[in-house]
Design a protein that fits this description.
about 55 residues, three-stranded antiparallel β-sheet, alpha+beta, single chain
Amino acid sequence: MGEYVYLLWDYTDDFGSNGKVTLHSVHDTEASALKEKRKQFRKGDLFYIRKERLRKD
């Protein structure tokens, strides 16, 4: 695993005052996250990728 991971967040339930965002999956590469995003309903319109640095504790 590299220095970064790519988190694929699911915003499909993020509506109204009780919106909820959930973590869908974690990927080693951006390409892998994009591939998973495209597999989702409506080509992942409501899915977002965020790059996060791994902590070394």
